[in-house]
Design a protein that fits this description.
The chain has 335 residues and is α/β, with parallel strands linked by helices. The chain has 11 helices and 9 strands. The chain has helices at residues 5-20, 23-40, 76-86, 101-108, 120-124, 167-177, 209-213, 246-256, 262-274, 301-311, 320-330; strands at residues 91-95, 112-117, 134-136, 150-156, 178-185, 188-189, 244-245, 259-260, 283-287.
Length: 335
């Protein structure tokens, strides 16, 4: 962004944030935005094609987005299970909800879940169980919710879609709307104090990968824009703009006021291993300083077993090497 545009954009965001607190005015703003997009022929990055609509799921051709996007491939049941099993509270907001599969799953457990996403296409094509509970919105404009409204906020595979300079603003907004906890997954690299570490493969450009890896743990990122892995169109793969280390992301959360709860992460990691997501989800469990650290699951063993059966999670097969790396890095077995 050109430096001269930043003050103008900041003032505009502030005005829009204030206006968004009034539902009727917010709806007018959203309708105006849609009309402007149509008039200008604007291309929404997260439109139908990003979510695989009308695309052969077996022929992705290296393009960003999903081969197939549904509740199963989004692993929404696993995300909902982690929230429901480990975090106290009843009111949940999923930021970056897309079509609302996580919202639908959370509501099936009895939690009062809502979602918000920047993609109008995704919200307009929300899954049945999330309709009426998911809305369009933008972290960088400001979420249309009062401070501390939600017991739990989730953001799965979302923050990496923002450029690095916008991450602090987004994380501060997440801190503002939660009264308790934030559960996030973000593609990360480098050592992780609370579980399996991450890697640069599939994140950094092939030309720079070995050079970047040679920098070792001292390199925390984020990757320069030109070093990001590209898709067939030459765009950053999956729309990922911020690829950084666990250490870098942890500092962003702490600067916003969050406490990273390492013990809670170590308790959650065996579930990720059992469900086959150790390699794919880099986990961050965070809370406000005045929120109590959970001392164990908030659901009984009978409840968790019943939920796993209902969603077929008990049929997932864990890779032995994933169970071993979690045991080695967290000091715990399966739950």
């Amino acid at each position: 962004m050109h430096p001269r545009l930043r003050p103008i954009l900041d003032r505009s965001r502030g005005a829009l944030h204030a206006a968004a607190q009034r539902p009727r005015l917010r709806r007018l703003i959203e309708r105006t935005a849609r009309e402007l997009d149509a008039a200008l022929g604007a291309d929404d990055v997260y439109d139908a094609s990003y979510f695989g609509d009308e695309r052969n799921p077996l022929d992705r051709m290296g393009l960003s987005g999903y081969e197939r996007y549904d509740r199963g491939t989004s692993n929404a049941d696993v995300g909902a299970y982690l929230v429901w099993k480990w975090l106290p509270g009843t009111r949940v907001l999923d930021v970056g909800c897309a079509a609302g599969f996580l919202v639908e799953a959370l509501r099936e457990t009895g939690l009062d879940a809502q979602g918000i996403d920047v993609s109008r296409w995704a919200v307009e094509h929300a899954t049945t169980g999330a309709r009426g509970h998911v809305f369009t919105g933008d972290l960088l404009v400001g979420l249309p919710y009062a401070a501390r409204r939600y017991d739990v906020v989730t953001t799965f595979e979302t923050l990496e879609h923002l450029p690095p300079e916008d991450v602090p603003r987004a994380v501060r907004e997440l801190f503002r709307v939660t009264r308790g906890y934030l559960l996030a997954t973000i593609p990360s690299f480098g050592p992780n104090a609370n579980g399996p570490g991450g890697w640069l493969e599939s994140k950094a450009s092939h030309e720079r990968l070995e050079e970047l890896k040679a920098l070792g743990p001292a390199f925390e990122g984020p990757l320069a824009y030109e070093d990001l892995l590209r898709d067939a169109r030459g765009e950053p793969i999956e729309g990922h703009l911020t690829i950084a280390s666990f250490a870098w992301w942890t500092r962003q959360f702490e600067a916003a006021g969050f406490v990273r709860d390492g013990e809670l992460e170590r308790r959650m990691h065996p579930d990720l291993a059992r469900f086959g997501l150790t390699k794919y989800w880099n986990l961050y469990a965070l809370r406000r300083p005045d929120a109590d650290a959970p001392d164990g699951p908030v659901r009984s063993p009978h409840e968790t077993a019943s939920r796993e059966t209902a969603w077929g999670l008990d049929q997932r097969v864990a890779a032995p090497e994933d169970l071993e790396v979690v045991r080695r890095t967290t000091g715990s077995g399966t739950n």
